[in-house]
Specification:
The complex is a heterodimer of chains A (98) and B (393). In chain A, 9% of the residues lie in helices and 8% in strands. By secondary structure, chain A is mostly loops. Chain A has a domain of 64 residues: Alpha-Beta Plaits. In chain A, the strands form two sheets. Chain A has a two-stranded antiparallel ribbon. In chain A, strands 2-3 form a two-stranded antiparallel ribbon. In chain A, a hairpin with a 2-residue loop joins strand 2 and strand 3. Chain A is elongated and about 55 Å long. Chain B has two domains: 245 residues, 3-Layer(aba) Sandwich (Rossmann fold); 135 residues, Rossmann fold (3-Layer(aba) Sandwich). Chain B has 393 residues and is an alpha/beta fold. In chain B, helix 1 packs parallel to helix 7. In chain B, 41% of the residues lie in helices and 19% in strands. Chain B contains 13 helices and 15 strands. Classes of the chains: A little secondary structure (98), B alpha/beta (393).
C-alpha cells in the first residue's frame, strides 16, 4: 500500500474500506509535536543513560542510538511530561512538571 | 437430507452456531437470549466445536472482544437481548464502521423502562441506524435458516458489515417447534472457510484498524458504509437463492402473503405475522381481499420493493412492535410511509403500535385492524394515522 495515494483529495471510492491502513509505523508521518508549545528539556550532563525514560514515551520521541539516548524528537513529542517523572537523575526538565 | 427435530428458537440458533463452528464467541448472559451461549458453551465443553469461548464481564466487553477477534481475522459471533445490546451501543457502531462481519443473535426484548423482559422490537429498532444488517424471523425455522445465511451475507466482499439475526423473545426463543435442520456437512460447505482479505494476525501485511478519521475523511467513510449497506440487498437475495438449493426453503427481502390481489394489507415484522396470516385466511374465506407483507430484511430497507408490492392496495396498516415516541408512530411506520410517498403511492396508510412488552396479539385483533382498513378505504381518508392495538382504554 502506498499511503501517499490515500489522502484527503481522494474520492470515497478510492479510500480504504473502513479507513483501514495497510502499512506499519505510519505514526512517524503524524507530527504530534504540533500539539503543544511546552516541551521537556534534555540536560545531557545529568543523564546516566539508564534509559527508563525511553519506554514510557507514548510517541517514541526519545531516540536511542548505540544504547544511548539523544535529544528529544520534538516533531513527535507532544509534551505529556511522563518522561519527567520517569527520570531519577534530574536530566529532564519541563515547565509545570515536577 | 436434513432431519426434523423439536427445538426452541434459542436451541435452533445454538445448533446453527455449532454447525458453523466459529473461531470465537464472546458472550454475556441476558434473558431471553441466555440459553444461546449456555447451549453453545456445552458444545465447546463437549469438544463438538473448535471455538474459543470467552466468558466476559459485560455486553460492552462481549462486543469489544468480538471486534478484536474479528479484526484479528477470526469468524466471530455473539448473542444478546435488550439492555445487553444497549450496553454494546458504542461498540455496535465501532464494529460496523470498521467493516467487521460479526454475527449477532439478537433475541428481541423490550428495552427498559418500565423494566420488562418480554418481547418487543425496541432493542433492535433503537439500533437501526448503527449500520448493521438486520434480518427478522417469524418462527424457529426462519431464525435457524437466517442464522445459517448470516456469514455468507456479512462476509461478502461487497458488504463486509456485521449482521443482526433477530427473533422474538420467548415467543420463538422459548417456544418449541418442529423444524428441519440441515446436515452439518451441508452447513459447513454452505458457510465455507473464513478467508478475510486483510486481518491483524496476517504476518505478511502490517495493518491498523480503526484509525482516527478527521473531518477530511469522516463523510467519505460514511458514504462507503452506506454503499456497502445498499449492496447488501442483492447479496441477501443471492445468498437466499443458494440456500434454497441446499434446504428447499425460499427467502426474499420480505414475504408477500396473499398480497397479489389484496385490497387491504398489513405490514408486520416477526412472530405476530403468523397470527395475522390466520386473520388474512379467515377474511379471505369471507371474500374480503386481505393480504400481508412480512418484513425479513429491515436493514438495508427494501423501500422500492415494498412500495411496489403494495402499489395496488387501497389501504395498508403498518404494525410496529416498538414505540419511537416521536408523536408520529413507530419506526416501521415512518419508513414504510416514506417508501409509499417516494413511490407516489395512493394507498391510505395507518400505523399501529402493538405487542409492546410481550402483550399478546390475537387473531381477532388482527381482523379488527383489517376491518378498520375497510372503513378507511370506504371513507377515502385516514383520520388517525397513529393508533394502538390491544390497549386498555
Amino acid at each position: 500500500m502506498d499511503l501517499h495515494k490515500v489522502n484527503e483529495n481522494c474520492s470515497w471510492q478510492d479510500l480504504t474500506e473502513g479507513m483501514q491502513v495497510y502499512q506499519g509505523g505510519t505514526s512517524a508521518g503524524f507530527p504530534t509535536g504540533e500539539w503543544t508549545a511546552i516541551k521537556p528539556e534534555f540536560i545531557e550532563a545529568n543523564c546516566n543513560q539508564c534509559l527508563l525514560c525511553v519506554p514510557v514515551c507514548p510517541d517514541s520521541a526519545i531516540p536511542v542510538k548505540d544504547q544511548k539516548r539523544g535529544d528529544f524528537d520534538y516533531r513527535h513529542c507532544k509534551g505529556c511530561g511522563i518522561c519527567v517523572n520517569a527520570c531519577h537523575a534530574g536530566a529532564i526538565k519541563m515547565e509545570g512538571v515536577r | 437430507m436434513g432431519k426434523r427435530d423439536r427445538l426452541s428458537g434459542n436451541e435452533a440458533v445454538a445448533i446453527a452456531m455449532r454447525q458453523i463452528n466459529p473461531d470465537v464467541m464472546p458472550a454475556f448472559p441476558i434473558t431471553p437470549s441466555t440459553e444461546i451461549p449456555q447451549y453453545f458453551s456445552s458444545f465447546v465443553a463437549n469438544g463438538q466445536v473448535d471455538t474459543e469461548f470467552i466468558p466476559v464481564e459485560s455486553e460492552h466487553s462481549a462486543m469489544s472482544a468480538a471486534i478484536g477477534a474479528e479484526a484479528a481475522g477470526a469468524r466471530t459471533l455473539t448473542a444478546t437481548s435488550s439492555c445487553g445490546m444497549a450496553l454494546m451501543w458504542e461498540e455496535l457502531y465501532v464494529a460496523a464502521s470498521n467493516r467487521l462481519p460479526i454475527a449477532l443473535a439478537l433475541v428481541n426484548r423490550a428495552l427498559s423502562g418500565p423494566i420488562n423482559i418480554n418481547c418487543d422490537h425496541s432493542d433492535s429498532m433503537g439500533a437501526r441506524d448503527a449500520g448493521w444488517i438486520q434480518i427478522y424471523a417469524e418462527n424457529n425455522q426462519e431464525v435457524y435458516d437466517n442464522f445459517i445465511q448470516a456469514f455468507p451475507i456479512a462476509e461478502n466482499a461487497k458488504v463486509r458489515l456485521p449482521i443482526m439475526v433477530c427473533q422474538d423473545g420467548f415467543i420463538t426463543s422459548h417456544a418449541v417447534e418442529n423444524i428441519e435442520l440441515l446436515e452439518d456437512a451441508d452447513v459447513k460447505a454452505f458457510v465455507g472457510d473464513y478467508d478475510p482479505e486483510h486481518y491483524l494476525l496476517n504476518s505478511q501485511e502490517r495493518m491498523a484498524v480503526g484509525p482516527y478519521s478527521v473531518t477530511n475523511y469522516y463523510m467519505e467513510a460514511k458514504k462507503q458504509h452506506a454503499q456497502a449497506m445498499a449492496n447488501a440487498k442483492q447479496v441477501v437475495l443471492d445468498v437466499a437463492r443458494e440456500f434454497a438449493k441446499i434446504s428447499g426453503r425460499e427467502y426474499g427481502l420480505f414475504e408477500a402473503y396473499r398480497l397479489e390481489d389484496a385490497d387491504y394489507a398489513m405490514v408486520i415484522i416477526g412472530s405476530a405475522a403468523g397470527t395475522a396470516k390466520d386473520a388474512v385466511d379467515a377474511l379471505r374465506e369471507k371474500g374480503i381481499k386481505a393480504g400481508l407483507l412480512k418484513i425479513r430484511l429491515f436493514r438495508p430497507f427494501p423501500a422500492e420493493e415494498i412500495a411496489r408490492a403494495l402499489s395496488h392496495v387501497k389501504a395498508v396498516a403498518i404494525m410496529d412492535r416498538a414505540e419511537s415516541l416521536s408523536s408520529q408512530g413507530g419506526p416501521l411506520g415512518s419508513e414504510v410511509m416514506a417508501a409509499l410517498y417516494r413511490a407516489r403511492s395512493q394507498a391510505l396508510a395507518v400505523n399501529y403500535i402493538y405487542g409492546l412488552g410481550g402483550r399478546d396479539v390475537r387473531v381477532d385483533q388482527a381482523q379488527e385492524v383489517f376491518e378498520q382498513l375497510e372503513k378507511i378505504a370506504a371513507a377515502g381518508e385516514v383520520t388517525d394515522a397513529y393508533r394502538y392495538l390491544g390497549l386498555r382504554e
